[in-house]
Amino acid sequence: MDSLLALGSGFLVALEPINLLFAAIGVVLGTAVGVLPGIGPALTVALLLPVTFRLDPGGSIIMFAGIYYGGMYGGSTTAILLNTPGESASVVTALEGNKMARAGRGGPALATAAIGSFVAGTLATIGLAFLAPWLVRVAVNFGPWDYFALMVLAFVTVSATFGSSPLRGLTSLAFGLVLGVIGIDQLTGKARLTFGVPELLDGIEVTTLAVGLFAIGEAIYVVSRHLHAPEKPIPVKGSLWMTKEDWKRSWKPWLRGFGFGFPIGALPAGGAEIPTFLSYTTERRLSKHPEEFGRGAIEGVAGPEAANNASAAGTLVPLLTLGLPTSATAAILLAGFQQYGLQPGPLLFAQAPDVVWGLIASLFIANTMLIILNLPLIGIWVRLLAVPLPWLYAGILVFAAMGTIAANPSPVELIMLVIFGFIGFLMRRYDYPIAPAVVGLILGPMADNQLRRALQISLGDPMILLENPGSATLLAIAALALILPFATKQLRKFKAEED
């Protein structure tokens, strides 16, 4: 009942005209960037962070969430029509969706992706509204040792789940942690690693790092490998509407996709890639038409797309209740909250309930806007694919530089933006994940403070981390999450040698 009342108050916030405008801008931008190859919601939110720092916090965060949801929708368009997923979670959609488009059924493929995203996204948002308060009641009793263990778990899971190897993820995390140490120590008031530069006393700005790594680095990377002509999208032929048979074959995969996407997305080590692959495998096994898989089975589009959008809402559960980002976009959203002096976690629901519940309510509105906009405007989204990449990425570079200067008018800030841009390029070039570096910068100083507070309470005894059941359990899970990827890799090598 409390959740319903809080959600009702959230709708009062979300339905304010200015917030409706922010939501509409977010879903349109999100869909557009999801359609454009190589540009995802994380990059877009990173670009907008320095531009929106003077706007209303609630409206800006609603817009960021709209971009997140819209990016999930838009990614399916390029996956189906261009066989180029806009997001990594749309890879599975391309398997069957592009085959449907080549067979002249691009319209039904886009329709089942959009409707499935709407159904699963709505159900997942309901789950978020009722699960989040329960997690908050658990987390509000955490001590400093529990918070430190929770952040260690965040560090390990983000490092282990992003990128091609856990070691590269941990290297990226270490880079972020080092950056997080720069500035004035909050407990002692002493300057650390500032090298006599006054602009570094306040630490590294998260927006500068995010824009540099995501936007500048991505632009340079795309330019460096743009040596071939881009593929042309497959034209959408025939009707966009699904037949009665299409509906019959799609509704169960939509529900199963939600069943995979939301619980896995809500886990601290969640994400959208695993549930989309699980959904595809399940639909292939359960389908009455297994011979169509690999040639354009509609179930292979409906299930993974539903799982994709359900996991997007699921990732907001650990972000809002525990302050744990489990995707690149969630890491940038965390930076967006901190830009306005808001720290996601259990206290956020008490300190800024209008922002949190307004955000959750706006997700229902954004989902409705997306289903209304997505299919009628498919022609416009397809035309976006004709934008020359040099123009697109040159615009990103200019926008990134102008936004950073507007937020922090300092030559030092601009120099750091360029440096982070080249580091971001090198990380992309050598396949190092970027999200762990941003998470390290955001959560590193907080983990440092919580550990030192725990040690002050225990008079310097580190065993306090293992004596408390909550922190001991979280550290044990973190250790498993760290060891398992290495153990699995060694086991595969051993089996390969035996064969």
Features:
499 residues, mainly alpha, two-stranded antiparallel ribbon, 22 helices, 73% helix, Tripartite tricarboxylate transporter permease
Provide an overview of this structure.
With 499 residues, the protein is mainly alpha-helical. It has one domain. The chain is 73% helix and 1% strand. Strands 1-2 form a two-stranded antiparallel ribbon. Strand 1 and strand 2 form a beta hairpin. Helix 2 packs across helix 16 and helix 10 runs parallel beside helix 12. The radius of gyration is 22 Å and the shape is globular. This is Tripartite tricarboxylate transporter permease.
- List the domain count as a whole number: 1
Counting DSSP H or I runs of 4 or more residues, the number of helices is 22
What is the helix content?
over 70%
Instruction: Name the overall outline.
Output: globular
Which stretches are low in confidence, meaning pLDDT under 50 for 5 or more residues running? Answer: none
C-alpha end-to-end distance: 59 Å
Mean pLDDT reading: 79
The count of DSSP E runs of length 2 or more, i.e. the number of strands, is 2
What class would the helix/strand composition place it in?
A: mainly alpha
Quaternary organization: single chain
User: How much beta, percentage-wise?
Assistant: under 5%
Radius of gyration: 22 Å
Largest sheet composition: 2 strands, antiparallel
For the biggest β-sheet, the strand order reads 1-2
Order of helices and strands: HHHHHHHHEEHHHHHHHHHHHHHH
Organism: Antarcticirhabdus aurantiaca
Protein name: Tripartite tricarboxylate transporter permease
